[in-house]
Design brief:
The protein is α/β, with parallel strands linked by helices. The chain is built from 14 helices and ten strands. Strand 2, helix 4 and strand 3 form a beta-alpha-beta unit. The longest helix has 20 residues.
Length: 378
């Protein structure tokens, strides 16, 4: 029997081989400081090979247009019922004001997601409501990249209006949506989802909707909510599903996943049952760094852009992640409600100067990018 060692696994990764699920799990379960150093160094080496030395960032604005939501995810401190204290629902005028402010501040992307509000309809149609938002924003700002609506929102619109996922995505794309955020993925394992987000779409539906978006010519991102009840085995299975989806899309010549973003769980204001079960309020940086390094190694050349979350980890943690396989520090966001309402300490807005200083502090060059990792001309 051949003994597989950490060194052999890392050598295989450096040679460009896709790691097996077992090899990924073995890396994630390492506890010896020496092995963890080797994993970090390999992730950093692969980052340099696949993405280069330059760290990218984007000037974007996040708009969470409503926190009224029919679902009750066990990690969410953002959602409200209609009429609750703190419930809000932005109208078109408010959305345009936020978009105008973003453009004046140099934003190239508007990232838009919200709660699932059954009353968000226009003439009885959920899709018409979403299309009106998109058309209103695109009409005013045709060059602004609209990175909008998660697979969960696509499923919600399709369900409300009795439409296929493909019809919803095509309509959103034709109205002006440029790419889809790969959020609502949480952990792509249905036994975890039954605890975390029992009302949310299941793993197969998330994968199906992202696959259809690629087929319809739209790029997506990908995410993982980590550090709660999931196991290393489930984390690697999640990465394996993302890698397979990406392989299938790229092999057919479709656009694919542009980046992987790790979102460590912040429990401070989360509903009590999950918070008690997890037993801490803020992410464990060491766990997040190891998982980001293994994600770089496991996803390999299939998904080459990796981003930490400064909102979740703080800017110092996100900067450290740039030496653990990440090549992008994310966006300015300008406002962020979902994680900040959960008790995250990273803040909700980052000035370009602050991001650039953080990158420079580790002696790496930096450049502004657009949503699809192209350069931005000034």
């Amino acid at each position: 029997m051949v003994t597989i060692t950490v060194e052999k696994i890392l050598d295989r990764a450096l040679e460009g081989h896709d790691l097996s699920w077992e090899e990924g799990v073995m890396l994630l379960k390492q506890r010896s400081p020496d092995a963890i150093v080797q994993i970090r160094q390999t992730a950093d080496q692969l980052r340099q090979q696949q993405s280069g030395e330059t760290v990218t960032y984007i000037i974007n604005r996040n708009i969470n247009f409503t926190n009224i939501c029919e679902q009750h995810c066990s990690f969410c401190a953002f959602r409200r019922d209609e009429g609750d204290e703190g419930a809000y629902w932005l109208d078109l005028e408010q959305l345009l004001a936020k978009a105008t402010d973003a453009v004046q501040r140099g934003a190239t992307e508007l990232c838009m997601q919200g709660g699932l509000n059954p009353k968000a309809t226009l003439k009885g149609s959920s899709l018409s409501y979403y299309l009106r938002i998109v058309e209103t924003l695109k009409d005013k700002f045709p060059r602004l990249h609209l990175h909008a609506f998660s697979p969960q929102e696509v499923q919600f619109i399709a369900r409300e209006d009795g439409l296929s996922y493909a019809a919803v995505i095509a309509a959103l794309r034709d109205a002006g949506v440029d790419s889809l955020p790969g959020t609502a993925a949480e952990v792509l394992d249905d036994s975890v989802r039954r605890v975390l987000c029992p009302e949310k779409i299941d793993t197969a539906t998330w994968l199906e909707i992202v696959g259809i978006a690629h087929q319809q010519g739209l790029y997506t991102t990908s995410t993982m909510l980590s550090g709660h009840i999931e196991t290393p085995e489930q984390q690697i299975h999640h990465l394996e599903l993302l890698r397979s989806l990406q392989q299938a899309s790229l092999e057919k010549g479709y656009p694919g996943i542009t980046e992987f973003i790790l979102l460590p769980f912040v429990g401070q204001e989360a509903p009590k049952p999950l918070r008690r079960r997890v037993g801490r309020d803020q992410p464990v940086l060491a766990d997040a760094l190891l998982l980001m390094a293994v994600a770089r190694i496991f996803l390999g050349h299939w998904i080459t852009n990796h981003q930490p979350s400064w909102v979740k980890l703080g800017l110092a943690g996100a900067t450290e992640a740039l030496t653990w396989g990440c090549n992008d520090i994310g966006g300015t966001l300008m406002e962020e409600h979902i994680t900040s309402m959960a008790g995250a300490q990273g803040g909700t807005c980052m000035e370009v100067e602050t991001l650039v200083e953080a990158i420079a502090s580790i002696d790496r060059p930096y450049r502004q990018r657009d949503t699809l990792y192209g350069s931005v001309s000034h």
